[in-house]
Amino acid sequence: MKPRTIRRSGLGAEGRRVKVSFVRPNLGDWRSHDAMEPLAFAVLKGVTPPDVQCELWDERLEAIPAQLDCDLVALTLETYTARRGYQLAQQFRAQGLKVVAGGYHPTFLPQEALQYVDAVVCGDAEEVWPQLLVDASQGRMQTIYRQSAAVSMQGLHYDRTVFSGKGYGHVSPLQFSRGCRFACDFCSIHAFYGRSLTCRPVVEVVAEVARLRTRWVFVVDDNLFVGPAETLALLEALRGRGIRWGCQISLDVASNPTLLQAMADSGCVAVLIGFESLDATNLTQMRKKWNNKHPYGEAIQRFHDHGILVYGSFIFGYDQDTPDVFARTLEFALESQLFLVNFSALTPTPATELYARMERENRLIYPRWWLDPAYGYGDAVYRPRHMTAQQLTDGCRWARSQFYRYSNILRRVIVPPLGCTSLSHRFVSLLGNYTSRRALDQKLGRPLGASSLLPTLVQPSLT
Ligand code: B12
Ligand code: SF4
User: Going by CA atoms, what residue is nearest to atom 1 of ligand 2?
Assistant: First the structure.
């Protein structure tokens, strides 16, 4: 792996300095309640020469102004925000501004993105961003910039000054690693990072923790169980820092008593675990058969015994699922005292193995659902094997609505799992449930993008 060097290149001698507006679109032109600081822009700000002016607009917190006072608009796009992002790009390009897009979606579909923006950055960006700024200032921005996935994270500076004055909540995101040692067929992480798995030096992470504006931390890694030694080194260094934190981590950590204890000792209050399915054949199909080795009930109990709440993520619609899957999974979630759940309809995103399989099997109802005005957030986008697409959409909604009924929320907060009865646990549970319920009410079934601009977005050909 080549060592990472931050090129503080400045801008071209004969070129002028560009003024940059970082823009984080929402799913549509409305505000939401689950916004955390978008770390991508802290990374970009960290490699932006100090005299390049930057501002941030996050549509989850505030309306994006109709006119931006800048030369370059830098959009971060996920698949769910692509449609809205393209609409904004069209609007700003019509005003003569240059637009660059980065993040998961443009990385996977650069040619689609280039129908709406001037340039695309594929992959992580800290190595290529300074050069892009130079090129932009000289009026010769290339169309595609690509950074290798295997760049070291050593010395990465997450410059959070870019978030000053914005109304983000009380949880600070923090990154330790990139990539995941697994490759579940539906997940974008493998498609983005391939086999590369990199960590920041623990000492740099700890120094960043000391500078955070809050003591509540969410480690954004897709799987904090990078490896026993790496994860243990981080956990030991986090002990005694006075933080309360949560993360996403693979289920196999529950079979490692040393790591579980170290998580508890360092202030971990909650973990998000991808259980995905209660069916062993489904797990094998999604390339997650290692989940079968760890009986779910016992694993959850071990987390609870260590004072760690469990947020369970489940996907409905794999090929073994029949219409009774919703009630069975709901019952499991309630009985095993999960404090939050995510019940999602299986949704094939671009560049994943799942997407390729669905396309091969000719099962996609909305092949480009992220651009399709008929698609609503949470809708099934393909034909499941043993139920209709409508049953899948409705079943997910039903299971969510049952889990987040006020009576169930109250029960979870008043009677938490033994081992998770402190005020901190109850606070996290109450806030998490309230936020999830509100976010779901707001998003489910809603078309992506802004309704006022829908007619102007053309569907590109991807060939
Ligand atoms: C934290 C998180 C959330 C948080 C919110 C994050 C926030 N900031 O508010 C919550 C929990 C709310 C959330 C929600 C969802 N999320 Co989310 N989330 C993440 C997670 C785990 C970390 C994001 C992060 O901070 N990364 C760290 C930063 C530094 O990395 P980065 O964003 O990739 O940025 C780098 C590059 O991509 C690039 N880059 C990115 N943007 C730009 C822009 C420019 C101009 C340039 C040059 C470069 C560039 O440079 C950066 C630095 O190198 C990611 C997975 C991941 N590892 O990124 C999933 C992820 C982004 N989420 C995902 C999904 C699917 C969702 C949901 C739709 C889930 C659901 N079913 O409800 C929702 C809704 C999303 C929405 N838009 O509303 C998918 C997106 C897949 C895709 N194809 O787009 C991801 C990749 C997870 C996954 N395993 O598949 N999420
Ligand atoms: S374990 Fe999680 S992050 Fe890793 S590939 Fe599977 S779903 Fe993605």
Answer: 182
Q: For 405-446, what is each residue's pLDDT tens digit?
A: 999 999 999 999 999 999 999 999 999 999 999 999 999 999
Strand pairing partners for 274?
Answer: 313
pLDDT, tens only, 328-370? 999 999 999 999 999 999 999 999 999 999 999 999 999 999 9
In whole angstroms, what is the distance from residue 113 CA to residue 350 CA? Answer: 13
Q: Give me ligand 1 centre to Cα 239, in Å.
A: 27
Mutation test of ligand 1: which of 43, 117, 208 has the most ligand atoms closer than 8 Å to its C-beta?
Answer: 43
Q: pLDDT (tens digit, 9 = 90+) per residue, 387-415?
A: 999 999 999 999 999 999 999 999 999 99
With respect to CATH, is domain 20-146 assigned 3.50.50.60? Answer: no
Question: What does the DSSP assignment read for 350-395?
Answer: TTSHHHHHHHHTT-BSSTTGGG-TT-BTT---B--SSS-HHHHHHH
The rounded Å distance from CA 87 to ligand 2 centre is 31
Task: Please give all residues whose beta carbon lies within 6 A of any atom in ligand 1, as ranges.
Answer: 27, 34-36, 38-40, 43-44, 74-76, 78-81, 100-105, 121, 124-126, 129, 173, 175, 187-189, 220, 222, 344, 349
Nearest CA to ligand 2 atom 6: 184
170-443 matches 20-146 in CATH topology: no
Cα 241 → chain centroid: 26
Give domain limits for the chain.
20-146, 170-443
How many angstroms does the Cα of residue 68 sit away from the middle of ligand 1? 24
Task: Locate the ligand 1 atom nearest the alpha carbon of residue 132 and give its number.
Answer: 47
Fold (CATH) for 170-443: TIM Barrel (3.20.20)
The torsion defined by the Cα of 43, 46, 47 and 50, in degrees rounded to 10, comes to: 150
